[in-house]
Specification:
Blueprint: H1 2-23, E1 24-27, H2 29-35, H3 37-74, H4 80-134, E2 138-141, H5 155-165
Parallel strand pairs: 1-2
Length: about 170
């Protein structure tokens, strides 16, 4: 009798496990954001913006360095008040440069964050619809899972759906 009872318990546990795996899946949102057609386009835009900002700031930094060297080289031939004025002007330019650098960095970071958020905002209703259609009750983020069967990973399916629906996204 005890043996039959254990068989019944194991049978019900197996049924519950099989049903749970059908209603539980996981997805790698970061992979989709970075590897979708729109995500790759965004990554290229971000890379280009970053290079442009770096070049602009490097050119300004070089100009400031040249001014500094010029002031140092003229130090012995200028009057004290002329030198003080040049140093004061130079310090103002340094302050402007630092403000500009901070502004450009903040704008770049905001663009990057908002653009990725835009992809995620477009992805959310697509995932919700997929979950309803496939009767999936629980969806987990892949990077929070230590171990999981690859059969439960729906990342590629969601990526394909996203690419089909959102080939081109305008990023501001």
């Amino acid at each position: 009798m005890w043996f039959s009872f254990r068989k019944i318990i194991i049978f019900f546990l197996f049924i519950n496990y099989a049903h749970a795996s059908d209603s539980l899946k996981f997805v790698d949102i970061n992979f989709i954001v970075n590897n979708s057609i729109s995500g790759k386009n965004l990554n290229q835009i971000i890379e280009n913006k970053n290079k442009k900002i770096k070049n602009e700031l490097n050119n300004l930094r070089k100009n400031l360095e040249e001014k500094k060297n010029k002031i140092i080289s003229q130090k012995s031939i200028l009057k004290k008040d002329e030198l003080d004025k040049l140093v004061k002007d130079y310090e103002k330019e340094i302050k402007k440069f630092n403000e500009l650098r901070k502004k450009k960095t903040d704008e770049f970071n905001n663009f990057s964050i908002n653009s990725k958020k835009k992809i995620i905002d477009l992805l959310n209703p697509l995932i919700t619809s997929y979950l309803k259609k496939e009767s999936i009750q629980i969806l987990l983020q892949k990077d929070k899972i230590i171990f999981g069967d690859d059969k439960l990973d729906i990342t590629e399916e969601i990526l394909k759906l996203f690419n089909d629906k959102h080939k081109k996204i305008k990023f501001e």
